Amino acid sequence: MLRIILYAILLAAPAAIAQQNYPQKPIRYVVPFPSGGIADVFARIIGGRLSQAWGQPVVVENRAGAGGNIGAEIVAKSAPDGYTILMGSIGTQALNASLYRNMPYDSAKDFTPIALAIEAESLLALHPSVAAGTPSELIALARAQRGKLTCASAGVGTTSHLACELFKSMAKVDITHVPYKGNVPAITDLLGGQTSMLFATMPTVLPHVKAGKLKGVAVLGTGHSPVFTRLS
After folding, report:
1. How does pLDDT run across 35-50, given as a tens digit for each residue?
2. C-alpha–C-alpha distance, residues 87 and 70, integer Å
C-alpha cells in the first residue's frame, strides 16, 4: 500500500551522539509542517519519551512551508552538534528534490538518518455532500461535472497533492486542486464543505470518518486495509 513515511532525521553528527554524556542541553526537534498534523503529533509523542529518557527537554518547533523545505533547510544549516533533529518525510528527504527547481539543502549529504518513526496509510475522504460512495461513482461524477469537484491537499508537491494528481491522471478526470499549508487546514475546509475531497493520512482523517462527518471511500494502494475493512 502507499503510505506516508516519517523519519526522525538528525543533522550529521554521529560522533556527538556516540558520546556517553549526550545530551547535555535541550534538543530542538523541528517539524516542517503545521501543528496538529501527523508529523507534529508523533514528533510530540517521540519528543516527550526522549525527554523522559534523556533528562533534557526536547522542544518541538513547527516551521512549515514549501512542502517541508523551510523546516528541513533550518536543520540542514544548523550546527552539526547533534542537538537539532528534523521530523522528515518522504517529501523532504526524497520527492522534493524532483519537484523543486532549487533545493536549499542536499537530503543525502546534509542529514544522518536516525530511525523510521511511522508509516501511515492514506485514505481518500469525501465531504458528505459529494454524491459518491465508491471510487467508481466518484470517477463518474467527476466526468459528469468536469472541473467542478475540488481536491484539497497539504500543499503543492506534498504526498496528498501527488496522490490527487495520480488519481486524476489514472481516472482521466478533471478535478481542481486546492493547496493548503498542511493537512489540518485542508481537513478543516473539507469538513466545512469548501472542498470536495482529500487524500490524507489515516490517523488525521479517520476520526472524522468514524464520526460521520466525512466519507471514507478508499485506501491508497493495491491491497486491503484492515482499518478500512472494519469501517465498510
Report:
1. 888 889 899 999 999 9
2. 12
